[in-house]
Amino acid sequence: MTGARTDSAVSREEIFAPILYLAVKCTVMAT
After folding, report:
1. How far is Cα 13 from Cα 20, in angstroms, rounded to an integer?
2. CA 31 – CA 23 distance, rounded (Å)
3. What angle do CA 20, 2, 11 make, to 5 degrees?
4. Which run of H or E residues covers position 4?
5. Global pTM?
6. Would you call 1 helix, strand, or coil by DSSP?
7. What is the pLDDT of residue 2?
8. pLDDT means per 10 residues in the chain (31 residues)?
């Protein structure tokens, strides 16, 4: 179960990182 928790944490970061990157990119472009 601990392994599954770690996997979900990693997948969360993998999904969140690109979204954050796109958000920053859009903000820079809008400026």
Report:
1. 10
2. 12
3. 20
4. helix 2-30
5. 0.50
6. coil
7. 57
8. 62 87 93 76
